[in-house]
What we know:
Layout lengths: L15 H17 L4 H8 L3 H13 L3 E4 L4 E4 L1 H24 L4 H11 L5 H12 L23
Antiparallel strand pairs: 1-2
Helix pairs in contact: 1-2, 2-3, 4-5, 4-6
Amino acid sequence: MEINRFKYKNKKYLTHSRVHYLWAINELNEKNGYARATDVASLLCVSRSAVSIALSHLKSLNLVVEELPEHFLKLTILGKKQLTNIDKNFTILSRFFRNVLNLDEETATKQACLIEHLLLDEVAKKINQYLETPPLPQKNIDSKPQKTGKKNPYV
Length: 155
Ligand SMILES: [Zn+2]
């Protein structure tokens, strides 16, 4: 393995599980108007201590704030922006997996969900461009070059 690959390690990166905390906080706020740590724990089926570890990470990344005195959790503007972006990536990736790789719905969704937060903007853009471009007409690989009988005028 090339040593350069290690330099992409970055504490700022979200993990798959942390992204789900963002989804949970967003969903609870939309549904109930508030999100408490206990609600997040029960929605994600994790312990309270797991939630508090995740929350301190998400707060340090400036993605989540805790409003006092109620301890209501809110996504910051940055948190919302990230989530919108991740949602977009999910759509692009699952379309790619279904339409280009012909994966079944479940596998496509699962794989997209696992890597949605890791997609670089420029790569997402390229995949999207690829999906929006109509496929080239299929070339018949068996066909031989046509002989016209004419000599190549450029020789
Ligand atoms: Zn996921």
